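This section describes the prediction task in plain terms. A model, or a person checking by hand, is given the sequence of a single protein chain and must write out its three-dimensional structure as a string of tokens. No templates, partner chains or ligands are provided. The sample shown here is typical of the held-out split.
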Amino acid sequence: MRRTLSLGVAFPLVLYLASTLGYVSAYSRVTFAKSAFLLQYRGGIYRYRILGTDAVLAVNYLVQHLGFNLATIPIDSLPFSSAYDLFTALVVLNGIAFVGFTVLLYVVTARDHHWVVSYLVLVALAIASAYVVTPYDDLSYLLLAALVLSGLADRPWSWPACLVLAAVGTADRESLFLGVAALAAILLSRSGAPVGIPDYEHRSAGRHDRLVASTLAAIVGSVGTYFAVRILYADPTDHASFWQTLAFKANLTPSSLIAVIMVLLGGAVLVAELPRFGDRTGTLAARYHRATLYFWILSVPYLFVTVIGGSWFEAPRLLLPLGICQYLLRWSADTPVSGGAAEGSGPPSIPSGITP
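The expected answer:
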């Protein structure tokens, strides 16, 4: 419990508060004003990311009712600081979502000391991506991780949880599809029984069926919500698209290229710090590499949209969901030896009492 509170809660919270209250994002601060916020997130491609936007407005109503206001020195020093009326709501909502994300990852993965370093690298990358402040990114990280972990939990509630999380997560940000791709990749990578594990097929049949059900539920929830939101929130007068939101030349500025380099370096560090495999047969490593291959193939549409239509200055927040999925793919390949289970018998179980 002490380690969970320190590394799962206190350490990420300190980083979050230091990065949030210590400076104000020059890139995003205009959207701290409610009028600009609504103009930005109620139009164009952002209109379909309804969950985070509505949640910020709800939290803002609550904090205003309570008279709670984070009047920080960086905010007070800005011109027209009184206009940044959503700053407190953004800090509160994103902070709760971010700590929820770190607690979930720590409790499920990093309680094993072999995972602590890679967990801390992922937390640092998430903090680094926050120089672009949005109402939905931190919430999307939480929902993405919860979706994949629920699908791997091997519980009767796994597929209903995946259905709900996929629907809710897609209404927050389209990057939730990467979690669906991760589940599908894990499922595809587990065809066939590992060599040297007696009765593997018999013992894993139920787990495989539940993973199939969870993956199908995630597909139905995400695809159904994606089209439903676009039908319900469509605006025929708004012709904005990914390819019209940003001039391509803006992606060739030094700041955008530095952001891309930062992502590449951060991704290399994350992959390098993922725990090594200890099984002699190499079964777990092979399963991980297969899952990685399938995942990146399934992620090509997301990468295409990101490269063609995304703002490369925002590369860390755009590509962090890929890093989260890669982390969880590696974790899913591990099998702790407990209760007499044979090594390689399947994915680690989420501790009892933990419900993402």
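For orientation: Residues 200-232 form the longest helix (33 residues).
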